Amino acid sequence: MTLAGFAGAAYLFADSRPAAAPPPVPEPVAYHSDGLSDSYDGFRVEPLRLPTGRGPGTVALRVTGPTTQFQTIHTKPMHMYVLRDDLSGYQHLHPEVVDGAWTAPVTITDGGAYRVYIEFVPQGRPAGADPTVLGVPFVIAGDTSMVAVPAPRAEERSGRYTVRRLDGTADLASGTQTALRFQVLRDGRPAALEPYLGAYAHLSNFEVRTQGLKHLHPIPANATGDAPADGVLAFHAAFAERGDKRLFLQFRASGTVHQVAFTVFTR
After folding, report:
1. 155-266: same fold as 39-140?
2. 39-140 belongs to which homologous superfamily?
3. Can you say how many angstroms the Cα of residue 42 is from the centroid of all Cα atoms in its chain?
4. With left for phi above 0 and alpha for psi between -120 and 50, is residue 128 left, alpha or beta?
5. Where are the domains of the chain?
6. What does the pLDDT look like over 111-128, one tens digit per residue?
7. Is 5 helix (H, G, I), strand (E, B) or coil?
8. Architecture of domain 155-266
């Protein structure tokens, strides 16, 4: 075959190949994370100071990213959580900026592997978008008394207050929107709830297997925003995966913030 014939054959071969597929259409940005990474969506958290022993200590974290201006959500620009890897020792903290770092006091009562989570919504993010959640681990050396995750229970107590999960210990379906409803009682009667951080209760959900965090949003009890007369608190819940969840519920009554925890299974 002559050189010209070879070139023509190559030209015909090239033309016979299928056309290249068009580039994929980019998917819209999904603003969600679970605190199991120190970076997400262009933001990064750097630990400057973490607890090293039992007792009072300090957490100081620097956040870098596209912006350092955060929306005020539940009366705070940032929420901070501390949890041990056995799902015990939960703390909900409210850091403030000190020398350029988000700083909060914390008290650690036992050894073990812990994680500190931060949750914030950057300025400019659409209304109702999920927050960015970042996290960093730390370890307290020494003897540790591990705590088993409790089995699901229909009610838990905090002082004179009883909190009932209104669907008992029923499993929830994963992959679908549902509502979690709790009733707060004092001495058997609906409790008079008071605002706490811009709502009548807060509910943090941790995956037992991974310790991934998701804050569940409350559903207003009425159009006026008043406290629920029946003491019932409801939350939007959409669990992506099956498995055990550990839920920490905080509410304010008689001037005191109370905390209870529930175990829920999703199938």
Report:
1. yes
2. Immunoglobulins (2.60.40.10)
3. 18
4. left
5. 39-140, 155-266
6. 999 999 999 999 998 877
7. helix
8. Sandwich (2.60)
Contact of 55 with 111, CB cutoff 8 Å:
no
Residue recorded with tokens 């905080």: 250
- Fill in the amino acid letter for 169: T
Amino acid at 101: A
Structure tokens at 124: 């400019």
59 and 103 Cβ atoms separated by less than 8 Å: yes
Q: Tokens at residue 229, please?
A: 């007369």
CA distance 267 to 265: 7
At 253 the three-state DSSP class reads strand
Cut 0.70: pTM above it: yes
Cβ contacts of residue 83 below 8 Å, gap of 6+?
89, 90, 91, 114, 115, 117, 206, 211, 213
Which residues of the chain form beta strands (DSSP E)?
39-40, 43-49, 55-64, 79-84, 91-93, 96-98, 101-108, 112-120, 132-140, 155-158, 161-165, 177-186, 189-190, 202-207, 213-216, 218-219, 232-238, 243-253, 256-266
Collapsing DSSP to helix, strand or coil, 266 comes out as strand
Residue-wise pLDDT for 197-217, tens only, equals 989 999 999 999 999 998 887
